[in-house]
Specification:
This protein is an alpha+beta fold. Helix content is about 30%, strand content about 25%. The protein has one domain: Alpha-Beta Plaits (2-Layer Sandwich). It has a four-stranded antiparallel beta sheet with strand order 2-3-1-4. A hairpin with a 6-residue loop joins strand 2 and strand 3. The termini are far apart.
Length: about 130
């Protein structure tokens, strides 16, 4: 009787379920000088859709930038006029370069007509 060849089934890490929750997951190591930036924005009344469109237009070109590690846009589930960018940059210098790109300069020229308030804070991961 001939032996059957069996293929080994590989399981991707994403399909495994861990009983230890997130404690067992390894995260990618960030560059030494990486920083997180949290930008919270509140749209002027009636400008929510325009603000969403302007912010969404920043995503694709920004994610292509060399120093951009993560660039995610969120909208509040409680206050629909509130938006949040969660960004991770390789360094503060990488973020400074981002602020000189054509897409950011375009946004910067328009933001005052759309925003009622904006707050941004840099963060450094320590654990």
């Amino acid at each position: 009787m001939a032996k059957r060849k069996t293929k080994k089934r590989s399981r991707s890490l994403g399909s495994r379920k861990s009983s230890s929750g997130s404690r067992g997951k390894k995260t990618a190591k960030l560059p030494k000088h990486a920083v997180a930036l949290v930008v919270m924005m509140h749209a002027k009344p009636g400008q929510e859709l325009l603000l969403q469109a302007e912010l969404s237009a920043l995503i694709r070109p920004t994610r292509k930038e060399e120093g951009c590690i993560l660039y995610d846009l969120h909208r509040s589930t409680d206050v629909p006029s509130d938006f949040l960018f969660y960004e991770i940059w390789a360094s503060r210098d990488a973020h400074a370069e981002h602020k000189r790109t054509p897409h950011f300069l375009r946004w910067n020229a328009r933001k005052d007509t759309l925003l009622a308030a904006k707050e941004s804070t840099f963060w450094k991961k320590f654990a």
